[in-house]
Amino acid sequence: MSRPALLVVIEHGYRGSAEVQFSDLLYVCRGLHSRLGGVDLVLRGPAVSFAVQAEPLAPPRIGARLLEAVPDPRRSLLDLLAAGVGTWADEADLIDCGFAADRLISGVVAADGAELAARWPEYQGVWFL
Question: How far apart are CA 87 and CA 58, in angstroms?
Answer without folding.
Answer: 26
